[in-house]
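assembly run, all chains below
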Amino acid sequence: MPTVGVKRDLLFKALGRTYTDEEFDELCFEFGLELDEITSEKEIISREQGDSKASGASDVILYKIDVPANRYDLLCLEGLVRGLQVFKNKMEAPRYRRVSPASGEPQKLFITKETAAVRPYAVAAVLRNLTFTQERYDSFIELQEKLHQNVCRKRSLVAIGTHDLDTISGPFTYTAKPPRDISFRPLNQTKEYTATQLMSLYKTDSHLRHYLHIIEDKPVYPVIYDSNGIVLSMPPIINGDHSKITLKTKNVFIECTATDLTKAKIVLDMMVTMFSEYCSQPFTVEEAEVVYPDGKTCKYPELAYRKEKLSSEFINRKVGINESTEKIAQLLTRMCLRSQATGVGDEIEVEIPPTRSDVIHACDIMEDAAMAYGFNNITRTTPRTYTVANQFPLNKLTELLRQDLAAAGFTEALNFALCSQEDIADKLGKKISETKAVHISNPKTAEFQVARTTLLPGLLKTIAANRKMPLPLKLFEISDVVLKDETKDVGARNSRRFCAVYYNKSPGFEVIHGVLDRTMQLLEVKSVRGEGYHIQAADDSTFFPGRCAEIFVHGKSVGRLGVLHPDVINRFELTMPCSAVEMDIEPFLGHTAEISLTHDVPMQEVVKHKFPTQDGSSFCPASTKTVFGDMSTAAGLKALNEFLADRSYIEGFMASQADTAVFNAIPSTPSATFCHLLRWYNHIKSFQRERTSLPAAKSQSDDEAESAEAARVKEQRLAEYAAKKSKKPALIAKSSILLDVKPWDDETDMGKLEECVRSVAMDGLLWGQSKLLPVGYGIKKLQIGCVVEDDKVGTDLLEEAITAFEEYVQSVDVAAFNKI
Amino acid sequence: MADTGLVETLLRRLEKADDGVDSLQVSSGLGVDHQLIVGAVKSLQALGDVISAELRSSKHWELTGEGAEIAEQGSHEARVFSSVPPEGLPQSELMKLSFGKIGFSKAMSNKWIRVDKAHEGGPRIFRAVESIEDQVREKLLLLQKGDSQLEEKEKNELKKRKLLSEVTVKSYWITKGSSFSTSVTKQETELTPEMIANDRVQDLRKEDTEKPPPIKGDESKVEDSVLKAGQDKTTGGSWKEKKFKPYNFEAMGVAPDCGHLHPLMKVRTQFRQIFLEMGFTEMPTNNFIESSFWNFDSLFQPQQHPARDQHDTFFLSDPALAHEFPQDYLERVKKVHSEGGFGSQGYKYDWKTEEAQKNILRTHTTAVSARMLYKLAQQEKFTPVKYFSIDRVFRNETLDATHLAEFHQIEGVVADYGLTLGDLMGVLHQFFTKLGITKLRFKPAYNPYTEPSMEVFSYHEGLKKWVEVGNSGVFRPEMLLPMGLPEDVSVIAWGLSLERPTMIKYGINNIRELVGHKVNLQMVYDSPICRLDS
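ok done. output:
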C-alpha cells in the first residue's frame, strides 16, 4: 500500500478547514485511507540518521497517509484534496479537457521502429502556462516518484519524463540506439556521458541503480531527441539536464515511455489531471501527437470519460441496502463518479472520469456506492445459506492422533516446511538427489532452499534449541512434507507424516517402538505380518547400523524407525543417543479421503438393508404381468402398489430391466392414491434414456448358474491359495527362555551340572549362553538361555528333563520367557 | 521425632503439675540439655492439642569464664595483694604471675599496694594496707547464687570488665492441651493399604489367593463371609487409631508426567471448531506447491502485480512449471485479463501462459478456494457452500519479530445466491463474536480479487484503539464468472493469520519462540488450554 506524505497545514488550507488528528483519522477511515503516522521532516531525519543531522530540518507537521494500491488519483496532495472535497460535498469533481494548441500544430513525437526491441510505446502531452511554487514543484516531482513505484512497477512498465518545453523544440523523436552512440549531459551532472558510462556511473547510485537492469543487457537503449538533437531523456533511467524543470518553467512537456500502453495512458492521464489545476486555464491539457513507426497517429492524453449504465436495484441488492435511485446517484457522484438517474426504470448512468482507472466493472461502482453510504451504516444480516459441515478427512485423522500422542507423553513441535538442503540431506547422511525434494529458485537465505521431505530434521533442531530442558525429551509432529510427483498438475504433492523422537541418556528404541505400537493400536492395525503391521530390519544411513527397521502395513512400507546414527546426532549438535520413528499417515485414511462438495439429500434413496427375498411371497419376477394382473386395471396397480410399499425396485436394490418391463406395462401415470407405486413410477421415469441400458433382470436360473460359477471360482482360488501357502515356508513360532538351575549345595560341581543340562537334546531346542550367579551361602546357580520352537518344546518338558539329573539339580525355574 | 522416652517423661511431669511446667525447669530437673526438651515440645505440638506451649523469654546475668574464675579464686587485684608478702616482692616477679599485670594496676588504684622504685635490686612492691575486702569476688559470688540484689550500676560495671554477661533464655511454658494424654503414639506420614485393610478382609484375600475357586454349592458360604467382612469393617482398620502428620498445603504438587500440544495448534483446533460450529466444510489445503495460475491468475491478479515479484513470492526451480490446466477455463482467464469480458474492462495487457505456469509456494490459501470454487462451478447444478481452511502459506519477506517466511492463514468462504455486503458483515460479526470480539467496524480497502474489500477492525479494550484483525471482501465477477459460476451467485470471504491471535492469547512477543525449532519448550509445557472467548 503506497504512503503519501503531505504537509498538514497545506492540506487543511486546501480542504478549507482544520481537523484534529482524531477527526482527520476518522475521515480517512470512512474514505478507505489510513492516517498511518503524524511526523515531521525533522523527526524522520533524526530517526533515520540521528539528531545531529536533523538540526535545522523543517519541523512542519507531516501526515503520512496510506492509499489503496489502485487509487493512483490519490497519490498527491492535489488528488487527495479533490477526492475528499468531492466526498464531503464541498465541491464538484472537475472536468478534464484535452485542447488543441491555441496557435499552430500540436507537439509531435515520432516513434522509430528500433524501440520495438526495448520499449515500444510512448505517449505525451503538454501543460501550458503552468505556475509552479516550491510546494507545487515538490508535489509534481513526488507524484512522478509515487507513480514510478506503483503503477509503473519501478519504471519497468512505464517511465515518466517531464521537460521545460521552452528549452527544446519539437518535433521529438523517440528511438533506440546502441549505448555507445548515446551521449548527453544527464540531470544534475556537469559533463556529458555516453550511455555506457552512465550505466557504470549509476551502478553505485542508491536511487537509480534499481532501474539499470531494465535495459542493461539490451543491445539498444531508448532515447528521446528534440529536433536539434538534444537529448530529453534516456528512459527509464534519467532525463537530460538541458530540459530540466525549474520553478520558473511555464510550459511542461510530459512523455511516458512504456512496455505496457494501457499503463502509459493511465500514468499520463494521472500526471495531467493532477497538475492541470495550476494551468492558466485550469483542468485543460494541450494535446500532443504521437506518430508510430507504421505512420499511425494518436492524440494524447486520452482523458476518456466512459459511461456505464446500471440499475439501483443491482447496487441495493449487492450491498444489502434499500436506497432510491436518486440517492444512489448522489452517493456515486460523491465518489467522483458523476451519476444521474436516466428515468428509465431504476437505471443510473455513471460517468467514469479518466482519474478513476480502477473502475473496470460494475462491482467497482457498487463498492463506491457502499463507501459513500458508509460501510458501517450497512445493516449486518445473516445469510440463510444452509450447509452441513464436514472436516477434511486427513485433518480429522491428524487432529485425533495428535490428541492421543500428547496423551502418550509426547510433546508437539511445530517446524517450518522450508529448510536448507543440508538439513534434509547431508545432515541425515543422504544425498539431495535421493530426496525427491522441490527446490526454491529465489531463496534469500539457505534456510529456504527446499521444502522439507522429512519431519525429522525439524524435531532434531527443536531438541538442539532446547538442550537445557530436563531429559528425556519426547517430541512429535504430524505435518506435511513436500515430494516431487509427476502425476500431479504442479509436479509435486504434500504427504502427511507422523514423526516422533526420543532423546535421553539411553537410545530408548523400545520407547519409540512403543509409540509405533500405540499409534497402530489407535489406528486399529494389528501386529500381524500380512494383514496387520510388522517391522523388519532395514539399512538406512540416517540410523545406526543394525538399529533400523522398516515399518510394513498390509505388506507396504510406510516408514522407518530406529536409533539415530552418531554422526547424525553430532551434525544436529546433539550429545545424547536418540531414536526416532517417521511414517506416512495417509495410508490409514480409508475410503473417506475425497471430500464431497455438496451435502444434498441424495436423489436416489440408498438402500442399505438387504432386499427381502422371494420366500413368503407368491411373486416371481419372470411372470410379473401374471402376478400383478393387468396393469390397465386398478386391481393390478393396487397389487403392485402394495408390493412396492416396502421396496424401492422390483428386484434387488438397483434399478434393472425388471423395473423397465413393469414400467412399460403401465399405460399412464398412476393416480396419487397408489402413493408407493407413484413414487416408484416417477423414479423409474427419471432414468429416461438409461432405461434401456439398465442391468438385466435376474432370473432364478441365472442366479443358480451364477452361484455355481461363484462356488467353482471360490474353490479354485482356495486351492490356489493352499498350494501357494504350502510352498511358502511356514512361519515357526519360537521363544527365548532363560532358566535358573539351582544345585543342592555349595559342593555341587557346577561344571558337571552345566554339562548335564546341556546334554538335554530335543528337536527344536538350542542351548545358548550361560553364567553362574551367586545365590547366597556360597551357593551359585546356573543361569542358562535357550531358544525353543514353541510347537516342539515346552517348558514343562524342559524342566522335567533337567530335574532328572537328581544328583546335581535341586530345582529349575523359568527366569524369563520371550516370544521371538 | 524427638526421643520418645523424653516425650513421655515430659508428659508425665505435666500430668502431675497443676497448672503447667517451664521447659527450663524441666531441663534442669532432668539434667538434660534444654534443646532436647524444646524438640520434645515441638513434636508434641505437631500432634495437635496434646499440649499447649507458650513461648517465654527471660533475661538473666551469667558469669563469664573470667568472672567464674574470679568468683572461685578472688579478683586479680586481691590475688596480687595476697601474693605480696609483708617483706615485699620485686615488681618483675609479680609481673610473671598470670593475673599480675591487670591485678597490679587495679590494686594500685585501690591503693592496696605501693611501689618502691628506688629499692635496690629494682622496683619492689609492698602491701600498703593491712587487709583488704575483695568486693568484686563477693558480688560475683552473690550473682552466682542467683541473688540479684546488686544495683544495675554495679552489674554494668562488672559487665564492662567482661566478668558478667546478660543472657536471654527462651523457654516454653507448657500446659495441658484439650486432648492431653500421657500415651502418645507415633505420627504416621501416609495412609497405607495395611491400615485400610481390616483383618477379615485381609484373611479373605489370603483365602482367595490360596484356595482354589469355590466349587458349586460353596458359593453361599463365600457370600456369608463377605457379609461378615462387611460388618467387621466397622471395627477393623488400623487407620482409626493412627495419628497422621499434617500436610503442608503451601507446597506445590508433583507435575504430572505428560505430553503437551503446541499452543498454535491448540488455537488452530479452536478456530476449526468455530468454523465447524458455523457449518463450514474444511477445504483440502494439503498442497503447498501451487501454480501461479491458481494462486494469482484465476483470482484476477494481473501478471505484473507486485505480489508476483521475486521479492515477495518463492518460485520453484524444480519442478519449475505446472503442466496441466483446464484448457477452456485457462482461455477464459486469459481473455478476462487481456481483453476483459463478463462486464469487465479487463487489465488490457499481454497475458502469458508461461507466467501462469510458474510453480510457486502458495502465497495464500485462497488458491485452494479458487480450485474449490472452480470445482463447484463444474457441478451440474450450483449448490450453496460454506468452506474454510487453516493452513500454511509462504512469503519471501524480510523476517522480523512478527514476520516469518511461512505462517498459517485462516480463511472462510461462503458462496450462495444473492449474498450482500451486509451478509458478509453479519457473518464476520458472528465469527468474531465466537472469538470474544464483539465491537467491529469496517474500512474500505483494496484487494485485486475482491470488490468491495474491507479491512476488519476491532476495538482493543487494552490499547483503547481500533486494531486490524482481518481482511474480507466479495470475490470479483472477473474471478467467478470465468469459472462458470452462475451470475447471481456471490461469494464472500475473509481471512486472518493464526499466529497473531495466538501471540496475543499467549503473550508471546517474538514469533520465533512460538513457531519453528527455536520454540521455547517450557512455554509449550506451561501453556494453558485455549478458550478464545474468555
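The two ends of chain A are 68 Å apart (CA to CA).

Chain A is about 30% helix and 25% strand.

not gonna interpret more than that til we talk
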